[in-house]
What does this fold into?
Amino acid sequence: MKTGGPQAVADAELVARIPGSKSLTNRALLLAAAAPGTSRLRAPLVSDDTVAFRTALNGLGARVEADDADQCWTVTGTGRGPVGPAQVWCADAGTAARFLPPFAATGRGTFVFDGSEQLRARPQKALADALTRLGTHVRAHEGGRLPLHLETSGLDGGEITLDASMSSQYVSGLLMAAPLTRRGLTLDVRSLVSRPYLDMTLRLMRHFGARFEVDETGGRIEVRPGGYRAADVVVEPDASTASYVFAAAAVTGRTVTVPGLGADSSQGDLGFVRVLERCGARVTVGAQSTTVTGDGRLRGGFDVDMGDVSDTFMTLAAIAPLADAPVTIHGIGHARLKESDRIAAVAANLRACGIRVEDGNDWITVRPGTPGPARIACHRDHRIAMSFAVLALGSGVRLELDDPACVSKTFPGFHAELNRLFPGHSIPASSEERR
Ligand SMILES: O=C(O)C1=C[C@@H](OP(=O)(O)O)[C@@H](O)[C@H](O)C1
Ligand SMILES: C=C(OP(=O)(O)O)C(=O)O
It folds into this structure.
């Protein structure tokens, strides 16, 4: 029988404190704002993206109030689309820029959506075009980008085809607006990326009382009119965020459990643990929690499609130098259109560490190697910062992040939590002051 002592301490399971899902928080906020009456979000994510979303909804006529501990947000919704004029600041949040304009289009008046330089650079054309075809008067910057001006008297609905090859967020935004249209809306979705997010949207819409049908191909969705009813939501921990502590388990040979993230999760990014399994980690996805145990060595020599879980491809790419053979990740072309061009950013940072990398339009190959000290260019991309923090942890190399605080987009306490789980982690928590 094993007793206490150093080995027992080394083997002890680490229980990570992962904040709520950004995607669930911002969807639940929108649906609660669109429903009449009071809805509650328990354990919402409190971060730049969700606070921006909450503030935007307050400006659009809903009331979102937080309790003292920010553990429960109470939303008083209006039961209809918002009334303009309103100026909406989306900050860095893709979810705000893609979910809020369709919602506003179901209301009446004029609305102006804008965001940071980073968000202004991200594509919106398919969404702007769809709103125009539905009868909204839309004026956008070149290529449909922010700032976006809308003038609307509500949406009749109807049927439109939508190209979702750049982002699934356009589809989610239109779907969530659809029950507020006068006749209902049918979407014929083409070239969809990030499919699990669309399923998450539909699941949450159903929770708020929406009625819809999805055809057998999954590409045609018919949403009935009739609005929403208020509902309470318990927000699960964020699966994309959990990828960093799971990867940390894999590279340190420790066991990390994330409570509250289990087999029934609607977050596709929990699928990242199956990729870690290919690297040799042991994975248990239980009803209420997920556990990853690493053996400290990473197996490579595989090629994996991470198109459905692309927010986690950098987590794998950043630790891939520690694998015993090359790792290729493909299907991730749309990751070039996020907070940064993520393929380019990961490739350049790995090269700065002395690692051999090849990359193409929608793929990257990372070769085994010993990373050397480097300054990591985060490009204000939270996931670049968090991914390379895990490489620093796993390799013991000194990596300096040029913008450690950018993690506040989705996980303001990231460095502190990594340090709590893995004391002595080389990126100091003191670097975490907010921008
Ligand atoms: O709908 C969502 O909540 C999200 C969808 C994904 O974007 P794309 O659909 O643009 O890939 C993902 O990258 C993003 O972090 C969140
Ligand atoms: C792509 C991301 O964010 P968003 O599109 O919601 O801004 C992300 O969080 O990785």
